[in-house]
Amino acid sequence: MANIHPACKPVSGEFHLLNVQIKEHVAKSFTALLTCNIKVPYMKAVNLEGPPRAGRREAVKDGMELGKKFLAEGEAGARSVCLKLKKTKWTPQQLVNVDEKDLYTNHPLPGFRDSQELFAKEAELFPPGEGWIRHSPTMLVHQHSHVYFVQSGEKAGKYCRQGAGGTGQWVDIEAPHAPQDYDIKVRAASASCVRRGTKFDRAVILNDVTKIARLSLKLALSFVDRPASGFALFQGLRTPEAAQWCAENFHKKLLPRLAEKIHVYKTEELQEILEATLSELDTEVMKSAFPFSGCSALLALLLGNRLVVAGVGDCRVLLLEGEGKASSASRLLDCEGHLEDEEEQLRFWQAGGMVVDGLLHHQQAEKLDDAKRILCAPSVFDVLLAPDDELDVKQVRGAYRKLALKVHPDKQKDKDSVELKAYQYAFARLEESKERLEAMIEEDLEACKQMRRVLHAEVHTRSGAASLLGVDWTPASDSILEEIEKDALKAAKELKKKFSKLQAFVPDFRQAETICDEAVRTMARPCTLESLPRTEALLKEGLQMSRALGVRDMRSPRSVVVMEPKSAAHFVSTSATVRFALLCGPTSALKDEDLIQRAAAHARRPKASALAWNGLAAEAASSAAVCISISPSGKAEAPAKRQKTAQGADTVRGRHILLRHQQVRQADAMLRRDPGRTVQETEELALKTLETLLKTPNQFPKLCRELSDCQTGEHPGQLCGDLGWIAKGQMDAPLDEAIFSLAVNEFSDVISGSRGLHIFQRLA
């Protein structure tokens, strides 16, 4: 983005600070951006964006026209020119005298003056945006980003920061980002289905993160592009507790990070923010009262025309473009951790994990061949010795000779590439373990025995941790939990001293220290006698993925499961409708072509799309999906081109089918009947009804009469479901927005309102 010309002009005694910029897009198009900060007497920001241009000179010409019109007629005049520019094509003759460098030197726009002249005359200035508080008589500070604004004096109007430690010299910095409003409309919806047992998924949609930040966290996000929305989908592992906690708290970790900067965010920085948010959520879950729970997690952030996503575990994001049979799909994000992946198998084998009946567990030696048993051995002792074997050099050498004959790579000619790699790694570990054990035994046999005891301890159970540390295992009240933790820390410190001299010999030394520390955390974790059996029973449950958030027992002391988020970004088109499928858990395993085909008819219906995708995962006990639909907003459309009706632009005629469900509690004077359906049953019926109407629209009266729970379903003939003429603002906001965005004869999405679920059709 290049600054073309900062300038100002007094209008009726009030100063206007005008800035014209040229923005270069990824697709090599150029856009003129006009920013006007008007002091009247407070600072008001006006932002206008010209049309995308193939050449930079055309965009410069747009910027000059916008600036001239603003100076002559103010904001209203500039907006009218902005609409005309979208239809204007500059001829080569009109661009002959357009030279970008003139915008820096000759000041060709009449009435423009240098910004320093403004600051010299203005006694006290105010910066744009929210979040500024008084720092000194002449300075304001943005409390979250620690950016300072000078209101008066020689540097009036400047932005600055303090040096390192807050005591260094003041450093001038550029002005905050002037947020852009993009002409796109965002609709998003989630769908969840529980077929057996408990609901494991949680979805969150934040339609306006700036509003959420202001109301719930008292944060000002005035400098991010708009629309600004956030999305999250979590699929619980073992239990839904981690997913529930993350769904309730992810915005508390994400939004403060966004507020730390009021300048332009690079796309890479936004990706880092989402990854850091996932890491912080993981840390909190690992410390919580449900550390053995876990979840796959997927976050998305839309700022202006940038969608940034990050996830970990069993999740992916799909971009769908086009409509109907012409739809196409591309994978924006596909997280790692599938148990069938060859490289991933070698990683978790070496970390002590194995797959049994399609689930990842800690090693079970009786079900492994020799190579995998060596790879999965949790310590150097277990590579060569059984738990009851004597710890001496003779025993070690005898075990080595037997195993070396079985796992030598040269004897595995009939193995495939994956198995052969496993034998190569196993033989290398076997040789290293023999050398290390012999050296350890010769150094200090008693220290070796202590080390072996630590490495064999089960410290994720309270009884196992207490046995290792020699403390009482009985769950305690919060009042004496601190004393128990002190005793555990003291015992762990003494235990570490007993094997400290083996640090140079044992490859598992750090692991032994981690086990001692993990035992302390187990003893310090709040629990009750009643909850303990249920919590520790989770240790026996396997996982569908080798990457996840939470699941402490699979992460420490050996990383069978890892928490390594992945992220991606996409620049959204402002001239076409696209959808993003956020899939987590069972829905992430669906085939791309099935997802495209199932929701081909719902390009602008996110709720119907999410319901359709969710229905494909019929074999799963619990499944979920989120759909984000982004389309041109139509705000820039000329008033003369808007569709007119007999009653005016703010009135439409429509009809609907109402499907009531159990969560609707309020009395309804227009209720025809109350069938007592669950929300899930109602959503499935609504999707089925909508898809029938899309194929056979003339079936509306018949279906409305049979299914609608509104008294309008009793109207005769073609009037069945008819709502008459509807004025803007007459209905609930979601219903109002839905029906007024429809074309004539078009059917709406499945819309949730205070009366239940609606399917609308606009008639006029």
Automatic annotation (TrEMBL):
Record has Isomerase as a keyword: yes
GO molecular function, one term: peptidyl-prolyl cis-trans isomerase activity
SMART domains recorded: PP2Cc
Keywords: Coiled coil, Isomerase, Rotamase
Gene Ontology CC: one annotated term: nucleus
EC number: 5.2.1.8
Catalyzed chemical reaction(s): [protein]-peptidylproline (omega=180) = [protein]-peptidylproline (omega=0)
Domain of life: Eukaryota
Coiled-coil region: 420-454
Domain PpiC: 649-764
Keyword Isomerase: yes
EC top class named in words: isomerase
Ranges of residues in domain PPM-type phosphatase: 185-630
One protein family per Pfam: Rotamase
PANTHER family (alphabetical): PEPTIDYL-PROLYL CIS-TRANS ISOMERASE (PTHR10657), PEPTIDYL-PROLYL CIS-TRANS ISOMERASE-RELATED (PTHR10657:SF4)
Name the record gives this protein: peptidylprolyl isomerase
Organism lineage string: Eukaryota, Sar, Alveolata, Dinophyceae, Suessiales
